[in-house]
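Narrative summary of target 7.
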Amino acid sequence: MLNFLKLLLIALHVEIVSFFALISLLIDRSFNLYYLCNLPFSRGILAIAGIKVKTSGLENIEKGKAYIYVSNHSSQFDIAVLQSVIPGKISMFFKKELAKIPLFGWQLWAGPYIIIDRKNPDSARKSLDKAKWLLSEKKISVLLFAEGTRSVSGEVQQFKRGAFNLAGKVAFPIIPVTISGSQKIMPKGKLKINPGVISVHFDKPVNTENINSRQDEINLMNKVRDIIIKNHSMEAV
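Modeled conformation, tokenized:
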């Protein structure tokens, strides 16, 4: 019963904050008001779920600078966790199906987020173009979950090249982000919320200049993945 109540309260919270986010987009297309909704949105979800967040490595992030954040992914709560601790404005990719959800999906579609249709190559190219525009013109960082889907076990899965293809095109540094413990909070395929602590570590920026070939992208991908795996293993000890 308590778990159901938590899920219901989170759903209501998401819709209420999404409503105000939509209103902010009608008033201010600079997204400044929109981003004021981020912290109440994410921290409200975490508070209802009983999740505490422990961070390290924030000193590796330069204030006012845009980055490509590349993270592992194990739980539905990972997005709220990262929204609550990443400094500055961030954008994310989201599946086109989410845009159909009243209020929540509508504000994603209208806001500074990047819709993606994996079945449509032309749509994927447009998504990358928008990510480049957000980074270069708006100085908004972009967050990507390089595994492409949530890990069931919590172990870091194989990465996909999308984040590193983007990095090669824009030459913005990558911040490797390691999330630990989130699979215990709400494992993939489960609706039960287990209160607990999620750890987030931000590693030093990885240079993405001179990425000129597919092999360069693969080498960059493996480098970032190795960093995340190393930090994930250290947190597990």
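The two ends are 34 Å apart (CA to CA).
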